[in-house]
Design goal:
The protein contains 4 helices and no strands. By secondary structure, the protein is mainly alpha-helical. This is Kynureninase.
Length: about 80
């Protein structure tokens, strides 16, 4: 089946999965998409790290405890307003 020029990405995945007779999350769908990718030649120009290669995320870096003018942590006022 030939893809439409206006086909949405989700429809493309569904179409390929039905052609391969597998689930849309199957690895074969991803491999087919990689084969059809017009920009695949750019992959050799970039290093894409694996999750296991990344340093662990520290909690203190995710939410710094900066102080606001009233003495509360800066993010605490945001939490109070949202709730």
């Amino acid at each position: 089946m030939e893809p439409s020029p206006f086909e949405l990405p989700a429809d493309t995945v569904q179409r390929i999965a039905s052609e391969l007779r597998c689930h849309p999350a199957d690895e074969r769908v991803a491999l087919r998409l990689d084969e059809e990718d017009e920009l695949r030649h750019f992959r050799e120009h970039f290093y894409i790290p694996k999750m296991q290669d990344l340093p662990p995320k520290k909690a203190c870096l995710a939410l710094p405890r900066a102080r606001s003018l009233v003495g509360k942590p800066a993010y605490q006022g945001l939490i109070e307003r949202v709730q």
